[in-house]
Amino acid sequence: MSVLIKNIIFDNGEGDIFIEGNKIGKIAKNLNLKADEKIDGKGEKVILPGLINCHCHSAMNLLRGYADDLPLKNWLEKKIWPLEAKLNEEDVYWGAKLACLEMIKTGTVCFNDMYWHFKHPEVTVSAIKEMGLRAVVGLTMFDSVAEGTKEVVEKTYSRVESKYVQSIVFSLAPHSIYAVSRENLIWAKDFAKKNNLLLHVHLSEIEKEAKDCFKKYNLRPVEFLNKMGFLNKNCILAHSIWLSDKEIKILGERKCNVVYCPCSNMKLASGFFPYKKLKKAGVNICLGTDGAASNNNLDMFEEMKFASLLPKIKEKDPTTAPASEIFEAATKNGAGALKMDIGEIKEGKLADLILIDLNQICLAPGHNLISDLVYSCSGNCVTDLICNGKILMRDRKVKGEEKIIREAAKRADNLAS
After folding, report:
1. Contact at 8 Å (CB) between 308 and 321?
2. How far is 28 from 214, CA to CA, in rounded Å?
3. Taking the domains of the chain in order of start, what are their residue ranges?
4. CATH number of the domain at 51-338, please?
């Protein structure tokens, strides 16, 4: 499979990009190479690295709008978890496909997923593979659920590890320090190291979590994980809001990755992400949407805007979290956290790319493209998406999208009733 993209704008210039297989083969002017598919940007489209969503719960798309305007504890325990307990394989399949469709339509090429994959990992993988996106699928650990124990997770991994494909890999995802015991967190850390897996965990999302941890262990959450040797460059820590200066220093020293989820944090009134301090400490800051039940969409363009605006309010400084840094958090930084060769447009990089029509009103008059993308655009500005060298969306059309929306709505209706 090869794709030739002609007359496309990138890096303030114009030229052609040739994709061979799943990689960017050549970037130059006036390329005249034979290709299976051709896209003509006509000097009116810009090409960008696809966006990377470093924390989401894909099949949770079926719960969008089901439980809103509630505190996190009540939201989870009284609404979300009881409904999720009813999910079956077909629900997870169509929920994951709906999430993939939404991400394709809004410019996301890769996502880091944490959902009930101890029940249906193969189903999720099938849905993602069919949609063509790149993903890290977390095998979730949750002590109070039989399928989320270390014994079951280990058996599940043994069963699914052979199902790795180039664009989909597995991670180990202990849900949180309050849902997974100290003993099982240590097991998770050791198992991940043995199998070279990323560790994906919710951390310090609400103040109560930090207080409860200190009350139980006389340590704050980051100190607690650090003491057991859990923290390293393979850790992806979602939310990371209620952090002390000492904890931020530890995260920097351990070269951890944190995922900033501003929309979900605002909606659940979780608190302010300490962007400026984490940045200064050298922590790799990525961006995520969280699930569609707490956001309520997977639009990374919207996420970028709030990711830049919130720290400005907190610090009372408009220079905090500039658009250029936030765009990197949604691309290059996410690629680094997930250990994937994407997030930049360079020869030899994997071909995960998006195209945007510069004639759209949100991009006029066009003083600064990155500022316009972060502050002005929504995911609807994306016209074409290429992932792993394959065109998944062309001129806003995705194969089978009507059926996915119809089937997902049917599943969601059955669940709620």
Report:
1. yes
2. 57
3. 2-48+351-401, 51-338
4. 3.20.20.140
Q: Residue 34 corresponds to which tokens in the numbers above?
A: 């034979």
pTM: 0.97
Residue 39 — φ and ψ, nearest 5°? -125, 130
Give the model confidence (pLDDT) of 199-255 as tens digits. 999 999 999 999 999 999 999 999 999 999 999 999 999 999 999 999 999 999 999
Taking the C-alpha atoms of residue 10 and residue 356, their distance in angstroms, rounded to an integer, is 11
How many other C-beta atoms are found inside a 10 Å radius of the C-beta of residue 340? 19
**Which of 50, 8, 45, 2 is CA-nearest to residue 387?**
50
3-state secondary structure 49-108: ECEEEEEECHHHHHHCCCCCCCCHHHHHHHHHHHHHCCCCHHHHHHHHHHHHHHHHHCCE
Q: Given this structure, which CATH class describes domain 2-48+351-401?
A: mainly beta
Mean pLDDT of 67-72: 89
Select from 287, 297, 362, 284 the least CA-distant residue to 326. Answer: 287
With cut-offs at 50, 70 and 90, classify the pLDDT of residue 119.
low
Contact present, 184 and 174 (Cβ < 8 Å): yes
Integer Cα distance of 317 and 172 in angstroms: 38
Round to whole Å and give the CA distance between 63 and 158: 30
Report the C-alpha gap between 224 and 374 in whole angstroms.
Answer: 36
Residue 49, φ and ψ in degrees, nearest 5: -65, 140
